[in-house]
């Protein structure tokens, strides 16, 4: 029973729920909620997300011994062999499910998303900010993939893609600042490690301002309504600005970024609701 719970935990259920939520939001906004292809689309996203979370934990096990000693592999609750078997099964199911989708969706999944997921930890994670942008774009790509998988075209999900990608990228940059000690042991050249926490803070402030400004444009252009604007302001913009301008300062250490990472976890979840509200 403990192995079953450990197998579920290593999938990172919250991340998978966020990805699944993005699928249903994209399907609803794109009038594809009743499509027979929706279950296959959701299955691809869930399998790829879960398998990639396992892959990252396997490759980062030595770093997680410092940053995340409570995780499934580092605590010994699940053996690496069992984790790899589960990962292989999920990737296989996801690839098979993608064959039932429109060709555009299948190509997005197999040619774009899958390589990004597999190469993130061994390649992109070691590149300052590029790694943050890559993993941040994964959530945004769920919107693009869902529309392409169900309808065979992508024309409505570009704004949700940009919003989700930017918000998720900011969160990943904050997480890197929080994990700077373990990344030093693993010799990862993340943005915080290469340029320092002060530079990271100012970069976060610039990105957050860009997010808040850019996210309001669909409202002022008349594309989205009042629900979108007020939820964006109260649930994403104000908490994000408070976090990077008041909760953090030039004297903040990695432990302060840990607390801020929790704020951006919440704003990412709220961001999904904001995107959903664009349909009202």
Question: How would you describe the overall organization of this protein?
Answer:
By secondary structure, the protein is mostly helical. It folds into 2 domains: 1-126, Tetracycline Repressor, domain 2, CATH 1.10.357; 157-280. The protein is 76% helix and 0% strand. The radius of gyration is 19 Å and the shape is globular. The relative contact order is 0.11.
Task: Describe this structure in a few short sentences.
This protein is mostly helical and 280 residues long. The chain is built from 13 helices and no strands. 76% of the residues lie in helices and 0% in strands.
Tell me the domain tally.
2
Helix-and-strand structural type: mainly alpha
Radius of gyration: 19 Å
Helix proportion:
over 70%
Q: In the CATH hierarchy, what is the superfamily of the largest domain?
A: UbiA prenyltransferase
Contiguous uncertain segments of 5+ residues: none
Distance between the termini: 44 Å
The overall strand count is 0
The CATH class of the largest domain is identified as: Mainly Alpha
Helix and strand run:
HHHHHHHHHHHHH
Keywords:
Tetracycline Repressor, domain 2; mainly alpha; globular; 280 residues
Walk me through the topology:
Blueprint: H1 2-9, H2 13-29, H3 38-59, H4 61-67, H5 80-98, H6 103-119, H7 130-151, H8 158-178, H9 180-185, H10 191-195, H11 197-220, H12 226-247, H13 254-277
Helix pairs in contact: 2-3, 2-7, 2-13, 3-5, 3-6, 3-7, 6-7, 7-8, 8-11, 8-13, 11-12, 12-13
């Amino acid at each position: 029973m403990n192995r079953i719970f450990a197998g579920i935990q290593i999938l990172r259920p919250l991340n998978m729920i966020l990805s699944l939520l993005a699928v249903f939001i994209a399907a609803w906004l794109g009038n594809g909620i009743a499509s027979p292809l929706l279950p296959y689309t959701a299955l691809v996203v869930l399998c790829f997300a879960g398998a990639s979370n396992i892959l990252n934990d396997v490759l980062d096990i030595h770093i997680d011994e410092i940053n995340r000693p409570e995780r499934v592999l580092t605590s010994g609750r699940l053996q690496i062999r069992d984790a790899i078997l589960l990962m292989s099964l999920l990737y296989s199911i996801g690839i098979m499910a993608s064959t039932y989708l429109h060709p555009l969706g299948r190509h997005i999944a197999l040619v774009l998303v899958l390589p990004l997921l597999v190469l993130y930890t061994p390649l992109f994670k070691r590149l300052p900010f590029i790694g943050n942008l890559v993993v941040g774009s994964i959530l945004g790509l769920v919107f693009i993939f869902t529309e392409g998988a169900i309808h065979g075209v992508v024309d409505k999900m570009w704004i949700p893609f940009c919003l989700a990608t930017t918000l998720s990228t900011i969160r990943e940059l904050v997480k890197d600042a929080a994990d700077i000690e373990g990344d030093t042991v693993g010799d990862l050249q993340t943005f915080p490690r290469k340029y320092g926490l002060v530079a990271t803070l100012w970069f976060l402030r610039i990105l957050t301002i860009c997010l808040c400004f850019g996210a309001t444009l669909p409202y002022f252009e008349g594309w989205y309504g009042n629900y979108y604007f007020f939820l964006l302001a109260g649930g994403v913009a104000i908490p994000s600005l408070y976090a990077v301008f008041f909760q953090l300062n030039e004297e903040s250490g990695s432990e302060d970024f840990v607390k801020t990472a929790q704020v951006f976890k919440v704003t990412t979840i709220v961001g999904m609701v904001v995107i959903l509200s664009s349909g009202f």
